[in-house]
Amino acid sequence: MFHPNKFSIIVTLSLAMLLFSVAIICGLFILMWSADKFIDGSAALADHFGMPSLLIGMLVVGFGTSAPEIAVSVLASLEGNPIWLWATPMVQTSPI
Question: What is the count of structural domains for the chain?
Fold first, then answer.
Protein backbone atom coordinates (compact mmCIF):
# COMPACT_ATOMS: atom_id res chain seq x y z
CA MET A 1 0.00 0.00 0.00
CA PHE A 2 1.22 3.52 -0.83
CA HIS A 3 2.14 5.55 2.23
CA PRO A 4 1.70 9.36 1.96
CA ASN A 5 4.74 10.09 4.12
CA LYS A 6 7.04 8.37 1.64
CA PHE A 7 5.58 10.50 -1.14
CA SER A 8 6.16 13.73 0.79
CA ILE A 9 9.77 12.71 1.47
CA ILE A 10 10.34 11.98 -2.22
CA VAL A 11 8.84 15.32 -3.24
CA THR A 12 10.91 17.17 -0.65
CA LEU A 13 14.13 15.50 -1.78
CA SER A 14 13.30 16.14 -5.43
CA LEU A 15 12.68 19.81 -4.76
CA ALA A 16 15.90 20.08 -2.77
CA MET A 17 17.85 18.44 -5.58
CA LEU A 18 16.26 20.79 -8.11
CA LEU A 19 17.13 23.79 -5.94
CA PHE A 20 20.75 22.67 -5.56
CA SER A 21 21.03 22.02 -9.30
CA VAL A 22 19.70 25.49 -10.10
CA ALA A 23 22.09 27.01 -7.56
CA ILE A 24 25.09 25.24 -9.14
CA ILE A 25 24.09 26.31 -12.66
CA CYS A 26 23.55 29.91 -11.53
CA GLY A 27 26.89 29.85 -9.73
CA LEU A 28 28.67 28.66 -12.87
CA PHE A 29 27.09 31.42 -14.95
CA ILE A 30 28.06 34.03 -12.36
CA LEU A 31 31.60 32.62 -12.30
CA MET A 32 31.90 32.86 -16.09
CA TRP A 33 30.48 36.39 -16.12
CA SER A 34 32.78 37.61 -13.35
CA ALA A 35 35.85 36.00 -14.98
CA ASP A 36 35.01 37.79 -18.22
CA LYS A 37 34.69 41.12 -16.39
CA PHE A 38 37.95 40.46 -14.54
CA ILE A 39 39.82 39.83 -17.79
CA ASP A 40 38.28 42.90 -19.42
CA GLY A 41 39.31 45.02 -16.44
CA SER A 42 42.84 43.62 -16.48
CA ALA A 43 43.19 44.36 -20.18
CA ALA A 44 41.89 47.91 -19.66
CA LEU A 45 44.32 48.43 -16.79
CA ALA A 46 47.21 47.20 -18.93
CA ASP A 47 46.15 49.51 -21.74
CA HIS A 48 45.93 52.46 -19.33
CA PHE A 49 49.50 51.93 -18.10
CA GLY A 50 50.86 51.15 -21.56
CA MET A 51 51.68 47.54 -20.75
CA PRO A 52 51.15 44.76 -23.29
CA SER A 53 47.96 42.77 -22.77
CA LEU A 54 49.98 39.57 -23.14
CA LEU A 55 51.95 40.41 -20.00
CA ILE A 56 48.78 40.95 -17.99
CA GLY A 57 47.32 37.75 -19.44
CA MET A 58 50.37 35.76 -18.39
CA LEU A 59 50.25 37.22 -14.88
CA VAL A 60 46.54 36.48 -14.48
CA VAL A 61 46.93 32.91 -15.76
CA GLY A 62 50.02 32.39 -13.62
CA PHE A 63 48.31 33.59 -10.48
CA GLY A 64 45.14 31.68 -11.32
CA THR A 65 47.00 28.39 -11.63
CA SER A 66 49.05 29.01 -8.48
CA ALA A 67 46.20 30.23 -6.26
CA PRO A 68 44.96 26.75 -5.23
CA GLU A 69 48.45 25.68 -4.13
CA ILE A 70 48.92 28.94 -2.24
CA ALA A 71 45.58 28.47 -0.49
CA VAL A 72 46.40 24.87 0.49
CA SER A 73 49.81 25.88 1.81
CA VAL A 74 48.41 28.79 3.85
CA LEU A 75 45.62 26.66 5.34
CA ALA A 76 48.07 23.85 6.13
CA SER A 77 50.43 26.20 7.93
CA LEU A 78 47.56 27.75 9.91
CA GLU A 79 46.36 24.28 10.96
CA GLY A 80 49.86 23.17 11.91
CA ASN A 81 50.34 20.58 9.14
CA PRO A 82 53.67 21.57 7.60
CA ILE A 83 53.88 18.40 5.47
CA TRP A 84 51.36 19.94 3.04
CA LEU A 85 53.70 22.87 2.51
CA TRP A 86 56.15 20.47 0.84
CA ALA A 87 53.77 17.86 -0.55
CA THR A 88 51.76 20.19 -2.79
CA PRO A 89 54.69 21.55 -4.85
CA MET A 90 56.33 18.12 -5.00
CA VAL A 91 53.16 16.54 -6.41
CA GLN A 92 52.83 19.33 -8.99
CA THR A 93 56.44 18.93 -10.20
CA SER A 94 56.62 15.14 -10.02
CA PRO A 95 58.03 13.55 -13.22
CA ILE A 96 55.60 10.63 -12.94
Answer: 2
